[in-house]
Specification:
The chain has about 170 residues and is α+β, with helices and mostly antiparallel strands. About 50% of the residues lie in helices and about 15% in strands.
């Protein structure tokens, strides 16, 4: 899984750290440093405190870097995992649908991911893919506007310089 993450995220640096939050599973503390330099990681954990099987509290701890402890949270991913288990029968433990082959599980998960991102609109009537496309288009329009403004600014600067010098600079 972490190998897939390393293919999908930009390479972290000192100014652009990779931020990851997880539950108390210590496996990440050993695997992350194999993929990225520890100086480029902000990693925090939420460890649930249980009494007789019931969660009675949680402790947030910083493992690598300096993430803000108030930002260390895993409720969004836990919610998404609940949705996956609810909508993909193969992810529910102890059912007849439980996959016998890894490829079956991968196919079902990718099909759900496509449906979730491209076909299932959120309350705002847009899918995540539509919103991403909108943001990408807006970023492109902002870049174009900056290019035009810089060009106009340069043209205006030349015109002002020509007036001050009393001669053409072109």
């Amino acid at each position: 899984m972490l190998a897939k993450i390393s293919k999908r995220v930009s390479i972290p640096s000192a100014s652009n750290k990779l931020t990851i939050y997880s539950d108390g599973n210590d496996d990440y503390t050993y695997v992350l440093p194999e993929l990225y330099p520890v100086d480029f990681i902000n990693y925090g954990q939420v460890v649930k405190i249980r009494e007789k099987g019931t969660v009675v509290g949680k402790v947030k701890r910083v493992i690598y870097g300096n993430p803000n402890p108030s930002d260390i949270e895993i409720t969004n991913i836990e919610n998404f995992h609940g949705i996956l288990r609810e909508r993909i029968g193969r992810l529910v433990r102890k059912t007849k649908c439980f996959p016998k082959k890894k490829k079956q599980l991968e196919n079902a998960t990718e099909l759900f991911q496509f449906h979730w991102n491209a076909m299932d609109p959120l309350p705002n009537k847009l899918t995540p893919a539509m919103m991403e496309q909108f943001h990408a288009r807006m970023e492109g329009e902002i870049r174009e506007a900056k290019r035009i403004l810089i060009g106009q600014s340069h043209k205006l600067s030349v015109e002002i310089a020509e007036k001050v010098l009393g001669r053409s600079l072109r």
